[in-house]
Every structure is written in C-alpha cells, then in structure tokens.
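Entry type: protein chain
Record version: 2
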Amino acid sequence: MKENIKILALALCSALCVSCDDLLDAPTKSTMDESVIFSTPAYAKNAIAGIIHSMGETNSYRGRYFTHYGLNTDVEVRNLGAALVDAETDNERLANYTPNPSNSNMNTGNDTYIKNYEGIERANLAIRGLRAFADLTNWELRQILGELLTIRAVLYVDLLKAWGNVPARFEPINSENIYLPRADRDEILKQLLADLEEAAGMVGWPNENSYTVTNEHINKAFVKGLRSRVALMAGGYSLHVGESALRLSNDPDLAPDKMYQIVKDECLEVIGSGMARLQPKGDYSSSYEAWIRAIHSEKHVAGDEALWEIPFSTERGRVIYTWGINHTNADKFTQQTSGGNIRPNPVLYYKYNRNDVRRNLTCVPYQWTSDAAGADATPRQVITNLNDWRFGKHRFEWLSRRVTNTNDDGLNFLYMRYSNVLLMAAEAINELDGPGNAAPYLKEVKDRAYPDNPEIVTTEMSQATASKEAFFKAIVDERAKELAGEMYRKEDLIRWNMLKDKLDENIADLQKLHNRETPYNNVNAKVYWKTGPETADGTTLIFYGLEPGETETAPGPGYTEVSWNLTSDTDARKYWERIYAADPNLRPYWPVWQNILDASNGKIVNDPIFQ
C-alpha cells in the first residue's frame, strides 16, 4: 500500500460540493458494475487505498491536520521560536485558541474537514457496496469491510477532536441528504462504537491473515484500541451543539461508568490476546528506544508496539518535517533543511525523572548542522536553547534511506501503539475497580521507563495506589510523559475537563522556569557543550550543566558556553503569553471554515463563540 496507492474508479461526490439533484440521483457510471467490484476482493480492497489517498493530500492530514491540530498544551507547543515577535499569524491562531473561520491556512476549499468527508463518502459508497454484493462469509471481504468501517471511524474521531460537532453522514450522498446540519457528537460517537464492535468481528488479529501481517492494514488489536478511545471521548467532557460550557453527555447510554466498562473489556482483550506487546529491546538501549527505531526501520511489522500506521509513500507525508530534529543544511541524512515545527513544551524535560529513559529520547536540545551542504556532508549536533527543544521520536538520521524530497519525508504516522492500550486499561480499571486492580497496567509502562531503577517504580507505584484520586493523577502525568509528541494531550485534557487548568498551571511553570523559582531553582542559566572525539562518531553533542544541579562552570577545556534562556526582556511577548489568547475551555475546537459554511445552504453554523 505504501508504495502504490491506487484510487478505485468510483463515481464520488464531494461531501460539501454544491451539486444538482439530477447528478446526485443519476445511476453511477463506472467502468465496472458495483456488483462485480464489491464481490471481488482484488477490486474491493482498492477502496481502502482511495481513502488513504484523501488523507495524504497536501491540505489534509499531510500538511494541515498533523501539522496544526493539538497545540498548545503543557506537552506540545507550536514553534514559538527564539524571536517572540508581536505579530500574530494565522498559524499561531490555530494553536493559541483564537482561529477564525477565514483562517488562511485552512479556509482553502480542500482542507482536512473537506478531505475527511471526501474519505467518508468513499467509505460510505464502498460499505454500501460490500453490504449489498459481498459474500461476507469470505474472510477477505469481511476484512475489507472491517477496515473500511474502522478507517471511517478514524476520520470521524479526528473531525470530532478538531471541530467538536460535525454532520453525521453514514450513507452516500443523494439529493435528500446533501445538506446536513452539525449533529450532536453523541449521535456520531454511538454509531462509531457500534461500527467498531462490528469491525472487530471482521478483521484479523496481527499476523492472523495476509492483510494483518503489516501494521499499515487494520487489525483487531487496533480496532479494539480505537473503540476504547472513542468510549473515553464519549464518556468525557465536551462541547455540544450551541452550548458554551464543557459537560458530560446527558445520554444514559454514554454514562462514564458504561464507557469505562467498554474500555476495560476491549483493552483487556487486547492485552490478554498476546497478539500485541511492548517493543522488544533488541539491540537498543531500551525497549522505549526500540519502538522508535522500529518505526524508522519502515518494516511495518504487526504484532509489536505499533498497532496502526497511516501509510505514506516515500515522497509524501511531513512527519519528521513536523516533529523531527532540525537539519540546518542538506546533508547525508536528508535534503531537507527543516524539522520541528511542533516542539516539546520547555518545562516537559524537567517533569521527567533524570533516570527515566523516555526523557532524552523525547526532549532533544540540539539540531544538526554542517560546514558544507549536500549528500556527502556529515553533520554534527549543535545546541539550541531553553525555548527551542525538539522531539527526538522522529529523526532523519534513524531512517535507512536518505530523504531526497525537500518537503516530505515519507515516514508513516503512528496512529496508536500498545502502551496507549495499557494506559487506557489502567485509567478505566481504576475508575471501576480501584487502583489496586489497575496497578499492573500502569506498572508495565513504568517498568519500561526505568529499566535500571526498579526502586523508582516501587516508590512511584506506592504513591499512585494510595487512592483512586492519586492513581488518576498518576495517569494524567504518565500519559504526558509516555505519549509526548504523539498529539493525544489536547484530546485528553478536554475529556478530563482539565484543559484551561493545565494550561494555567503550565504558564505558571514557564514563569517559574524563567525566574529559576522552585521547583526550577536548580536549572542552570548556562549550559556547556562540545562535539568531541569521545563520542563514537565524533559528531554527537556532549553536554554539561543541562542536568539540574550541575555547576555553572565548564567541566574542562573545549566546551562552549551558551545562555540557557526561555525568553528575553526585548521580546514583544513572553513565551508564556503565547500559549493561549482566548479561554481554551470556550474554544477547545476549531470553527468550521467559511468556505464550508458558504457551501452548506445555511445548514451549518458555528457556535456563538465563533460568530
């Protein structure tokens, strides 16, 4: 699929285009009859690729949704840069909770909202065709139908995350349903829970059939993980149509205890199946490093940590471009001079215990540079600054190929991994059965974080299991550390009704970090670095003073001193002043873009806060 995305020749209408009734009611014209297409696996499976194609287009996931959704939080922030200028761009407004419907990056007519509905329409047509014509005793046709139901659910999950309430379109477009208003999210979430329950009975476990040997196809472990995630959304806080305050659903079918029961049941089935697991350590320093390396190997092996990846071709997708470590010049690893538009919140590094193996793999205080530029150039690491961290989970240098495209890197987007299942299980079981029963699943994540320090795990687990409330707090903290840079945080904070509280706490933390106040009073104002022959390749940075408590004097010759600053007195706005510019609880979602409103025949309107 990654190397050869094909679009099935179906007659499709865009979910938001204005089309005449005659066109919508006309028989589908196709080079092949639907009864043949959807009864033949070789043809029917191309519908999956058609949807993935919609997700990979420039203003869809590839260059808009992945690059803009989920910012700013206490974990991930948009690149605020070293020069904190006063001008507020449309890019910044997408992150700081002040976007307007005419946002120039999104109001394009081919943005993620429209492309997701294009994918949904393609899924609806294929699902209808399979239900009408497929022999669903055939395992392959069942697998295809299950994949289509699941990918349609992914598209809806991401629409709900970004826009809150959107039209519920689960049938192909016709003259009677072309214009639909925004439905309350509860209606959609209930349908997704039912669809995913059905899909789980259709798709194979990882490595159970010829599709599920790769995590570029949908497998049962991912479906159950996604259903758990939908249940957490449904049982948590959100904005409903026309309302201005986050609240729990009033639908008794979506009561929190019922949703937690779904999460518990689904996650325990995945865990108990043995069909997915935390990544084996292999040749690397830790199991945590091993899963990151496995993604960069691009082998897409099912049955390990990565449950599902959105596949991109080698000339498509901006994963490292968006989250990766910057390269200032073209070099032997990449042609790109980019990396890291989404960055760790500066306080995140200091939230980790220094013995936590995730810290240095997640929060990277350097970029790559070289004296020359080109495919033969060997780069070296150079330090950045306190306001300029990069995520280390995505790296050009860990690919087995040189990236030759100047914009796209071709690395798949990891949509869900097994450790998330463990943490969802721990959260749900704590709520239903208490911390003692939930502890093993949190402990498995912590054991990997501290492979050489089991005593730290013992201490942290003792603190977490002191009460149900303490365990929930531990889950909030652990999801931040384990899943940093994977863009779950905003969704989590909304469903916990903690978005503004956590951002306010983070703003206070940033100010304390800047002023070196407790608990950041031992963070140095100077850091020393050198690129020395002591490292295996002679290109890797050696730090001193980065660890809290180290002295502010160089440990020896050859070190360069750098001031370790978050912001300066000359900045028009301080770093913390750019986290949000409107109440995040009132604007947890984006508005529907103006071109969509204009094409909706008056059916779609934004909530009052955006009008």
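Comment: Residues 526-562 form one domain.
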